[in-house]
Amino acid sequence: MSELRYDPMRKSWVIIATERGMRPSNQQKPEQSRPPVSKSSCPFCPGNEDRTPPEIFAVREPGSKPNGPGWTIRVIPNKFPALTIESPRERYGKGIYDVVSGFGAHEVIVETPSDQEQMPDFTVAHLRDVFSVYKNRLADLKRDQRFRYIMIFKNYGSEAGASLCHSHSQIIAIPVTPSLVAVELASVRDYFHLKERCMMCDIIHQEREEGERIVIEDEHFVVFAPFGSSFPFELRIAPKRHSHDFSVIDEEHLYHFSTVVKDVLVRLRKVLNDPPYNFILHTAPPAATRVGKPDYWSSIGEDYHWYLELIPRMTMIAGFEWGTGFQINPTSPEDAARFLRETEI
Ligand SMILES: [Zn+2]
Ligand SMILES: [Zn+2]
Questions:
Q1: Which ligand gives the minimal distance to the CA of 199?
Q2: For residue 69, how far is the Cα from the chain centroid?
Q3: Using an 8 Å Cβ cutoff, are 250 and 136 in contact?
Q4: Please, which residues bridge with residue 58 across strands?
Q5: Is 168 a catalytic residue?
């Protein structure tokens, strides 16, 4: 039986249509065809630092020089940025249309010097260092009050949009609030004003009580397939204790977060045969005071709850999905969670 489900945070519908018969066995993708990139031509490999713009930040061996080898994690401006920090931030109208100049920041985090290791291969300690770089870049960019939103995300595999196979993630800081983010911010704020509770805390509470959509949990984090999952094996990883801002995560949470992310990536790789995927860090936007809207962010610390969204790319976005904005998902989140939970790693 198919079912229409509503995601209260995204304010969007999804059709869970399990008779379309997508189980892990027939969802497995063939080994991805990764074009062989030789070390000499990969701009992210050590020794080729001069082929990228100068680094913004790096975790380095003592004594090694910037923009040379000796790093373990390296942050650089995107060579082909969608937005640039040099552009002035200008807003203007063109008749009924609104335009903002292409002001922003677009950075690449090269997660490892190795072009063989992918994120599930990293040690927990190295993954913690990568997430610590996320935290620091986020904190740094948040100081620039011209940014309305800062997003950290990862594309893995060419079907998920990665153009280079050397493991990396990206940060984009933009001068407007994306519509999807605006809807989510508004729905959790309305919920909080009505109930004086955080929606995500309530979701986590209910998911842990019901249990059927939980993949794993530890002392500080829970991983679950959302009730209104738009995509097969879509997952959310959230801290159990309320926290709105990833840029202030403490060392203990950073370690536990790395442990559960690694665990889940290893499970996904095993169950879905190394699928392409995207992950997106949803964290509170910079809460700069806005002229004429002094109360705009007054409850953000209480109403917003950060999480990591993880989406294996198993389905195509086709006509119905484009036309309605909602997805047909052939795998129920209950099945997805069970397959992942029961996988031995
Ligand atoms: Zn490389
Ligand atoms: Zn919360």
A1: 2
A2: 28
A3: no
A4: 74
A5: yes
Of the residues 106, 126, 166, 168, only one is catalytic, namely: 168
114 CA distance to ligand 1 middle (Å): 7
Kindly list the distances between the CA atom of residue 112 and the CA atoms of 59, 68, 98, 119, 280, in Å, as whole numbers in the listed order. 10, 14, 40, 9, 19
Q: Nearest ligand, CA of residue 9?
A: 2
* Helices 199-210 and 179-195: angle between axes, nearest 10 degrees: 80
Residue 98: strand pairing partners:
93
| pLDDT for the residue 315 | 83
Is the model's pTM score more than 0.85?
Answer: yes
Element containing residue 301 per DSSP (H, E): helix 300-303
Residues with CB under 5 A from ligand 1 (ion): 42, 44-45, 115, 166
Distance 307 CA to ligand 2 centre (A): 10
What is the CA(270)–ligand 1 centre distance, in A? 24
The residue whose two tokens read 């031995």 is: 344
pLDDT at 291: 78
Spans in the chain with pLDDT lower than 70:
20-39
On whether the CB atoms of residues 201 and 305 are closer than 8 A, the answer is yes
Ligand 2 centre from 200 Cα, in Å?
Answer: 5
pLDDT of residue 297: 85
